[in-house]
Amino acid sequence: MKTNITLIGMPGAGKSTVGIILAKDLAFGFLDTDVLIQISQQKTLQEIVDVSGYMALRDIEEAELLKVNLKRHIIATGGSAIYSEAAMKHLAKESVIVFLDLDLEQIRERIHNFDTRGIARSEDQTIEDLFEERVKLYKKYADVTMDCRELDQDSLALEIIMKTKALL
Questions:
Q1: pTM above 0.90, yes or no
Q2: pLDDT tens string 67-79
Q3: Which end of the chain has a smaller Cβ tally under 10 Å, C or N?
Q4: Any idea of the CA torsion for 63, 24, 104, 142, to the nearest 10 degrees?
Q5: Which residues lie closer than 8 Å to 142 by C-beta, 6 or more apart?
Q6: Cα separation of 87 and 57, whole Å?
Q7: CA distances (Å), 159 to each of 18, 22, 90, in order?
């Protein structure tokens, strides 16, 4: 039986915000892996990208995700977690993986700091390129895909609880 819910999706999809609501509603712990990375590295995600490059951020993210060993937690991953098959398999052992699916326009509306947010992407990769590349991977790893286009955060949390209840 799985005991965690892990949220995946594009930057701006609401993983951290919805994750906190879910944790409260379920009386679970909450882990934001972007914050975990920043604490372990003593740098912001953008500083890691600026100094060491986006592939270094992905490597650090994978290493941190592979250390996660929790029960009864909501885990909000960074948008690039899905680039590591090892990390996703590790998380899937104890987690129901939930993809927060938004369309590109909504992501664009929510992300105003695409170039300074600490997104693990190559310099020439646009938000459109990133979206196209990542959505396939989110769908590959998701146990549950949530269409977030019409739901507010509280309603989304309730829907996730209903759709994951049988899997937890």
A1: yes
A2: 999 999 999 999 8
A3: N
A4: 60
A5: 8, 97, 98, 99
A6: 14
A7: 11, 10, 25
CA separation, residue 66 to residues 2, 5, 88 (Å): 17, 16, 9
- Identify the CA nearest to 75 among candidates 25, 15, 163: 15
The confidence band for 124, taking pLDDT boundaries of 50, 70 and 90, is confident
- Distance CA(86)–CA(37), nearest Å, equals 17
Q: Which amino acid does the sequence have at 156? A: L
Bridge partner residues of 77 (DSSP) = none
Instruction: Give CA–CA dist 54/129, Å, rounded.
Output: 15
Q: Which two tokens stand for residue 19?
A: 């994750």
